[in-house]
Amino acid sequence: MNEDNFKAELAKVANKVENSLKVALNDQDQSTLELIEGMRLASLDGGKRIRPFLVHASSALFSSDPQLVEATALAIECIHCYSLVHDDLPSMDNDELRRGRPTVWKAKGEATAVLTGDALQALAFELISANATPANALIKAQLVNELAKAAGKTGMVAGQIRDLAAEQATDPASFADVIQIHAQKTGALIAFASQAGAIIGGADHHARAALNLYGEKLGLAFQLKDDLLDVVGTATDLGKTPGKDEASGKATLVSALGIEKAHTFLENLHDGALYALEPFGERAEMLRQMARFVCKRQN
Amino acid sequence: MNEDNFKAELAKVANKVENSLKVALNDQDQSTLELIEGMRLASLDGGKRIRPFLVHASSALFSSDPQLVEATALAIECIHCYSLVHDDLPSMDNDELRRGRPTVWKAKGEATAVLTGDALQALAFELISANATPANALIKAQLVNELAKAAGKTGMVAGQIRDLAAEQATDPASFADVIQIHAQKTGALIAFASQAGAIIGGADHHARAALNLYGEKLGLAFQLKDDLLDVVGTATDLGKTPGKDEASGKATLVSALGIEKAHTFLENLHDGALYALEPFGERAEMLRQMARFVCKRQN
Fold this sequence. Notes:
Chain A is mainly alpha-helical. Chain A has a single domain (3-296), classed as Orthogonal Bundle (Farnesyl Diphosphate Synthase), CATH 1.10.600. The first copy, chain A, contains 15 helices and two strands. A two-stranded antiparallel ribbon of chain A has the order 1-2. In chain A, strand 1 (97-98) and strand 2 (101-102) form a beta hairpin. The longest helix of chain A has 28 residues, at 205-232. The mean pLDDT of chain A is 93. At the A-B interface, helix 2, helix 6, helix 7 and helix 8 of A face helix 2, helix 4, helix 6, helix 7 and helix 8 of B.
């Protein structure tokens, strides 16, 4: 397993997600076309598909039903994409561009953007629960439950409300606050994606706890690297304007730590993610490469 | 079974929903209090709880696990409440009052209102999938799947996007268009609630189809009665300003039919709902009373 293999696998998963989303969003009804177009804009041709990759890579550690793996990967990506659509709204981050394209509210209007996010969230749970059989229903119900918790008031949405509160507060957010915001806002979904394989494969709670720990470290590393890139990256590499966090007075790990300590912390998180994978030995190489990729990427 | 029994049962279910929502929204974390308060404002002390009642009443026709009935009733109510929060947003219906209280965006700001709705949707799927066992997991997965479809791009959200399009169109919406909007926007969730008992009880597809038909008629009757009350009701009875639909140029069944034909259509829907219940004989009396209640209510 080298970096080329990893990148090929990442591209393969991204391609699979893209095709599956196209199928899931193939509705032809003219009267709801605005909604479907919004959902396509929000989800197609998007991002690195890190969360679906984590589902696939963690599932490869166990004996897993491919249909369940695929549905779970897709469902998590739908939740992620819906959160971006709502985050971009004028009342939230007020972003007009994402991945070099107009955001959904900018392209389709605010009302359609709200509904696009709502429908993507419902689609996530529709996909993950589809084709239930006596053999897979218990796992499906568990996946739905864990995804809902990772997405909702104790996970992603909780992180988002804390982030908004931190932005409006007069005092700068403490290091501990920022850690907690990221742990919920982006970490919960990444941690769920990382342990999804253990749930799908019916692995014991040790395996699940190890993958959860890996996901927590990875999620925080991902956010920290994002913050670092915002400070030191170039617009060409990023496909967006750097320095936006600082300009908006947003509390980030880098503003709380300073650049040098932030780099050290990133190394620690990388080490922590690798440490969590030790029980899986060689088989977890794909997840190790992902940790490396997240910490070393330039965009 | 008389009207008093029905009203007592409706109050009993409403009370149960209220208590269960309080438990589900009992989070004490100060840092996410804004979110939890938004969710409480959106869901507590609210409405007639018609959808939960339908879950309970349809479940009473079969042998049903009470925990599943309760979770499903609660989940549907969470979806309904989230949809109201998002519908009220300035970019949607721009409503400042609901049930005589400030709407969530008015009380808490737009960003919190968006997140409140998002978290309520996730909570619905969290509740319905909780405590899965080998014995109930298949039904839980089916309930999740049907609820997601009723809520998402082929159900409630689809109806909402069509409604927005109809409002923005220069030509008034046709009768068929308005029917289709209501069938998705409010009908899909009511139809799901009505057939939930058949899913929970593992009934055959005839029973499910009959209850679905009942739900479709009831959902449309509910909307038509709402529209009629908006035209002929008083502010005291309604707890909101009547005449709002007409003032906003909103396409309603009443504007498409005229008041007299609308009354006849309501009678037809009532008859259709009762007809759908015939296979269940006396046992469906509670659902019959609900149809009567929906069509005769003054608020």
